[in-house]
Structure formats: structure tokens, C-alpha cells
Description:
2,3-Dihydroxybiphenyl 1,2-Dioxygenase, domain 1
Amino acid sequence: MTRKLNPTSLIRPVRFAHIVLQVRDIERSIAWYQTVLGMETVHHAGVIAFMTFDEEHHRIAFLETQVEAECPKGAPGLDHLAYTFNDLGQLLSTFVRLKDLDIHPYWQINHGPTTSLYYRDPDENGVELQIDNFATADELKGWMRSDEFKANPIGVPFDADKLAARYQAGDSIDELLAQGATS
Length: 183
């Protein structure tokens, strides 16, 4: 049987599979990602480890490096990884659990399309925990094409403690997901 290739067509991947981070202390990184995201180690070979939280064989891998030099702030490279939760209750429950473990976000922002909490892993890589603020991808993309998003593509900071209190008090989810709900 012959097969034909189509080198003139743009073929998109079916999903994003994983990322590999170089880390200074592989055990510390493994522990942090287990604690923050509930990841499990599927293979650990000393200077390399593979972890996942879902059906993918691995979503993140760590390579331990001996390089101690810091990368200058603002240098080209990875800014952050982002992980999406199902709903606001899951995001805020995770915030409270991590806070109780003395793991605090360095940035709390409602971007418009998402409500996001940003953390730093042991090597100072940014890790965003987020939820989508709209029910469908079309609504999210519509917001990103709006004049409101164009005027402020970064978003509005919020206080996660206040947001959690309002959530527990039973305030409307739609109100809580609106930009400026808790400043």
C-alpha cells in the first residue's frame, strides 16, 4: 500500500502535550508540583523525572541542571505555565489549601477571559492557576476581540481572600467573575 504525504497543507497538532523545565533541585520541584497541582511521578531517573495529572503519559518533565546562574529578569524565555480548573470553587479551594501551606500567589488578576492566580515554583518559574470566565470558547474569544479587552488586555487585580469570602457567602458567580468584583 502506498501512502501520500501532503506537504503543502498546514496541519495543526491535536493537543499540547508537555513541557520540560531545567531545575536546580529535582526533588524540591517534584514535591512542589505534587503539592500545588496533585501531579504524580510516572518515572524518576535521578536527573530526569516525568509527571502528569491526567491521561497524558507526562505533562511536565524536569531535567536537573548544575548551572546556578540566574537568568536576568525580563530575558527572553518562558514566562509561565497555566493550568485551568473547572470552576471558581475549585480555584478558590486550591488558593485556600495552598495558603494554609504558606504558598502564596504573587499576582491575583481577573484578565477578563480568565480569573487567575500566579505562583512561583522553586526555580521562580511562573505557574498560573486559572478558570475561564465564560461558558464557551466563542464567548472567550468574543471578549478578547472586544473594545473593553482592547482598552485593558492585562485585567484588573483582585483580592483572593475577599473573593473566597464572597464565594462562601453565596454571592452570584457571574458577579464574582466580573472584573473589579473584589479590589
